[in-house]
Every structure is written in C-alpha cells, then in structure tokens.
Write a structure and sequence with these properties.
With 326 residues, the protein is of the alpha/beta class. Helices cover 43% and strands 16% of the residues. It has a 7-stranded mixed beta sheet, with helices on both faces. A 4-stranded mixed beta sheet has the order 5-11-7-8. The N and C termini lie far apart (66 Å). Mean pLDDT is 94; it is low at 320-326.
Length: 326
C-alpha cells in the first residue's frame, strides 16, 4: 500500500535535477512513491531521470511527448498517484533529509484534508524563511476561514502547491487537480478552490522545502506571452468565486488580489517585448471590464495610489480607444 505519492515535474532543469533527486533519495521509505514527470525536456534532463528511474527507490517515470506546462504535468502525476496522501515538489527545488516522513506524520496526527507548511526561499546563496500567512498552528480549521480578510495577506495568497500535503479524498472530489494548460499562476485557481471546497485544513511550522528563486528558465524570469496566463488564471478565480454562496464576502478579496497582480505586471511592463506589452495592456483593460464593477470600484479606492493609478490609466486608454474607433 502506497502511503505517500510525491509528484515532481521536470522541464529543462539538468543543472538542478541532480540536487532535487539527491534530496528525494534522502526522503525514501518503503511506502513512498516518486512520480517523476518529464514535460518533454530538450536538454540533458531525460537522461538524468532515466538513471533516477533505475536508482531511486519508488521512482515512477512518466514522459510527455509534448510540453504541456506545470499544471498539466502535475495533473499527469495526480492521475498516476496511488498514495493515500499526495504532495508536490518542483524539479529545480530540493528537500531537507527526512522531511516527508515528518510531513506525513503531521497530517496523520491532525486528520484533516490538507496541511500547509512554511518553506525556505533560496536566492543565490541567500536563504530566507517564508511562513504560511495564517497565525494559528497545529489547529484544524475550516479552510474558508483562512481566505479573509480582503486587505491582508492570507492563506490563499500563499499559493505554493509544494508547501503542503493533501489527502486523496481531495483527488476523488476533483478539488486537487489543476487547470489544464495554464503556463503561469497555475496555483492561484487551485489554492482558491482548495480553500472554498475542502472541509478541513491546518498550518504547521515544518521547514523542509527549499524553493529556488531566480532560475533563468523559470517563467517568473521570462517576459514572454506565457506570463499573461495570470489573466486566465484570475478570471477563473473570479468566475468560480462569483458562484459561491458567500460570493458577497469573498469577491472583494479575489478582485483585490487580481488587481494587485495586474498592477505588478503593469509596473514591470518594460521587461516584456513590445507586442506582449501591448497585449498585456489590452487584456488587462478587458479583464477590468469583466470584473464586478461595484466591487472593483471599492477595491481601487482602497488600493495604494501608485497601483490604482496604473489600473486607471489602462482603463482610460481602453475607453479612449473605443471612443476613437466609434
């Protein structure tokens, strides 16, 4: 019987994959499986994974014939997983020795649907601890209670899939799966659905995941059109939250987060190619128009002046362009 399935997507990470796999070897157990998903890598990653399939206890190697992105790769892993519990790791991150047995013990002790954990961020040689923005630890709660307040960072803003562990019943209820094809912000609709639809969760202070920032091949470092998938991701958050019985309470948080991320990208628009920058402006304007306008007005009035000004400029340009066209 497999107790824990660990889903690890890899794409062109030959520089980092050996460290990732070494850390998995330091977390093996007879009842653990490691589902290694090669998302059609074109560098030396496939050879590294072929060796891991032979040498890593519990390894299951799955290869994509076409690159599908992180969300699709994770879904492939979820489909293959046999464990009572599931967790994730990215192919360029790594773990402390013995971390997964501790993580499994935590969710078994708590008996909840999912557990969220802190993590260590690694940027070059610098290390910093990042905590789940939820004050109560080792206390089982309703996940909905961790969505609000709208004006503070909460558990839905801590959207790292690998910072936690999840019971299989979430797979059976189709809560744990990701939106197919999302190239960035894939964790955002996922974390919102998790907190709206799961029944119980807890935050714990375990430190064992090392998240590598500043990787050149990471989409967070690349200013191409795939970055604009954040709009598709947050459109889904808004659409699904609008159908929730508590939409009036939850939508201000969803809209506020969407606006903050949009303003962030608009504030760094110079890193995009000109054609992508134009598309970002036009797609942002259309997205602002789609949002519930009463909620949007309240959110923009409560945002800091700089971010609100960026969004208002985009709205004005869109209105001006329509006026000229008419």
């Amino acid at each position: 019987m497999v107790k824990l399935s660990v889903i690890v997507p890899f794409y062109n990470v030959q520089q980092y994959a050996p460290d990732t796999l070494k850390s998995l070897r330091a977390n093996t157990r007879e009842d653990f499986e490691f589902i290694l998903v090669d998302d059609c890598s074109t560098d030396g990653t496939p050879d590294i994974l072929a060796r891991a399939e032979r040498e890593l206890p519990g390894a299951v190697l799955v290869r994509h014939e076409q690159n599908g992105g992180l969300a699709t790769a994770r879904n492939t892993g979820i489909e293959k997983a046999r464990g009572e519990y599931l967790t994730f790791l990215d192919g360029d991150d790594w773990l402390a020795p013995g971390y997964f047995p501790q993580l499994l013990s935590a969710i078994q002790e708590l008996g909840c649907d999912f557990v969220r954990t802190d993590h260590v961020q690694s940027t070059g040689r610098a290390r910093s601890i990042h905590r789940v923005p939820h004050g109560r630890r080792w206390t089982v709660m309703n996940p909905r209670e961790a969505i609000l307040p709208a004006d503070r960072s909460t558990s839905v803003d801590y959207a790292y899939a690998w910072a936690g562990i999840y019971h299989r019943r979430l797979v059976d209820r189709e809560i744990l799966q990701f939106t197919h094809g999302l190239r960035t912000a894939e964790d955002r609709p996922w974390i919102w659905k998790l907190h709206r639809e799961a029944e119980s969760f807890a935050a714990v202070g375990l430190l064992g995941v090392y998240y590598r920032r500043g990787v050149a091949s990471s989409l967070t470092q690349i200013g191409d059109v795939r970055q604009l998938d954040f709009i598709r991701a947050f459109d889904q958050v808004i659409e699904e939250t609008a159908r929730d019985p508590q939409a009036d309470k939850l939508l201000p948080k969803a809209v506020r987060t969407y606006c903050a991320i949009m303003a962030h990208h608009l504030g760094q628009i110079e890193r995009f190619e000109p054609a992508v920058a134009r598309k970002l402006r036009s797609m942002s304007a259309a997205a602002l128009k789609r949002m519930p306008q009463d909620v949007l007005a309240e959110v923009m009035d409560s945002m800091d002046a700089q971010r609100a000004a960026r969004l208002r400029r985009v709205r004005r340009r869109a209105v001006g362009a329509r006026t000229v066209a008419a």
